[in-house]
Amino acid sequence: MKNYKIAIVGATGMVGRTFLKVLEEYDLKADYTLFASAKSAGKTVEFMNKEYTVQELCETSFDDGFDIALFSAGGSTSEKYAPIAAAHGCVVIDNSSAWRMDKDVPLVVPEVNPQDISKYKNKGIIANPNCSTIQAMVAMKPIDDKYGIKRVVYSTYQAVSGAGLGGYKDLENGIKGEPPKKFPHPIFSNCLPHIDVFTEDGYTKEEIKMVNETRKILGKPNMKVTATCVRVPVFASHSESINLELETPFEIEDIKKLLSQSEGIILQDDPKNNVYPMAITAAGTNDVYVGRIRRDFSVENGLNLWVVADNIRKGAATNAVQIAIKLIDLWENDKK
Ligand code: A2P
């Protein structure tokens, strides 16, 4: 295999640091360069048994000819630098929301729509979906393929780490009685029905992302989807109640069997023994956990699921690294 050149942009952030951990775990050997803002330039980071010096990201950073860049440095950094990287022949796998709804940019969850990865050729950018959307897609895709999903109601319970280091610190400091800096209200001992900014129609951008990204990833532009996204005082892992209305009748046991056999899913559904997905057990792992599978008796073909995953791993870093691995596989196979 060729010695690929990979850039990590935002290497000092919450997701960036997890990129490094996940790359080590997947043992993706490559020639790496780590970028962050001027604030972190010169800092050293231990990665793959080597010491790396963090470089300041600038307009000439991609002149060196990278093959892949994993970006998680916020929307404005992606907006500015992803096209510069792409113009130098580097494929950007972007964790921000900047490019997700661009019709020329594939939005990919490897277990769900791996075939879209090859569309990177359009613009040189692949978007990593929103954290809450990724875990929902892994759970919903097998159900959509077999029964057809008619309508979705998402209610999320999202960890503070989804708001970066600032969110994490607000909970840590809030426990000690200090006021919040990142969130508009204390998050400790509280729930905030407010993730990202509010729009004219009363929804938050996070809720709109879930609606639009679900439709794009499943390739169903008119699917009925609604969402309420809530920040909860949990450090790691997003939990989601997903209410589905299916096109065709189903048996609960068949849904359980289907999900237990699907890639990336671990079924945890034994309520009699208090077994169901939880944030603390999902934290630090790469899988999506599904449980509390039960019929919604209020509508025809209604189904309820409880879906939990580590938002920084499968919801961000792991998904991006899995895309990178599939992209490299694609290139290696093209050579054969
Ligand atoms: P830095 O640590 O130097 O500020 P988080 O979302 O956890 O706050 O992390 C954001 C990541 O994005 C950090 O690695 C941060 O670097 C990086 N970052 C923020 N702004 C820029 C920028 N303008 N150029 C490059 N990296 C940036």
Q: What report would you give on this structure?
A:
By secondary structure, the chain is of the alpha/beta class. Helix content is 31%, strand content 24%. The protein contains eight helices and 14 strands. The chain has helices at residues 14-26, 75-87, 131-147, 164-175, 205-218, 252-260, 279-282, 313-335, and strands at 5-9, 31-36, 44-47, 50-53, 55-56, 68-71, 91-94, 125-127, 149-158, 224-231, 238-246, 265-267, 288-296, 302-309. It has a six-stranded parallel beta sheet with strand order 5-2-1-6-7-8, sandwiched between helices. Strand 1, helix 1 (14-26) and strand 2 (31-36) form a beta-alpha-beta unit. The relative contact order is 0.15. The model has no long low-confidence stretch (mean pLDDT 97). It binds adenosine-2'-5'-diphosphate.
> Biggest sheet: strands, sense, closure?
6 strands, parallel
Fraction in beta strands:
15-25%
Query: What number is the mean pLDDT?
Result: 97
Number of strands: 14
List all distinct small molecules, including ions and cofactors, that are bound in this structure. adenosine-2'-5'-diphosphate
Which of globular, elongated, flat, extended, rod-shaped describes the shape? globular
Widest β-sheet, arrangement of strands? 5-2-1-6-7-8
Helix fraction, binned, reads: 25-40%
Cα-atom Rg, whole angstroms? 20 Å
Q: What is the CA–CA distance across the termini?
A: 11 Å
Order of helices and strands: EHEEEEEHEEHEHHEEHEHEEH
The secondary structure category is alpha/beta
Number of helices: 8
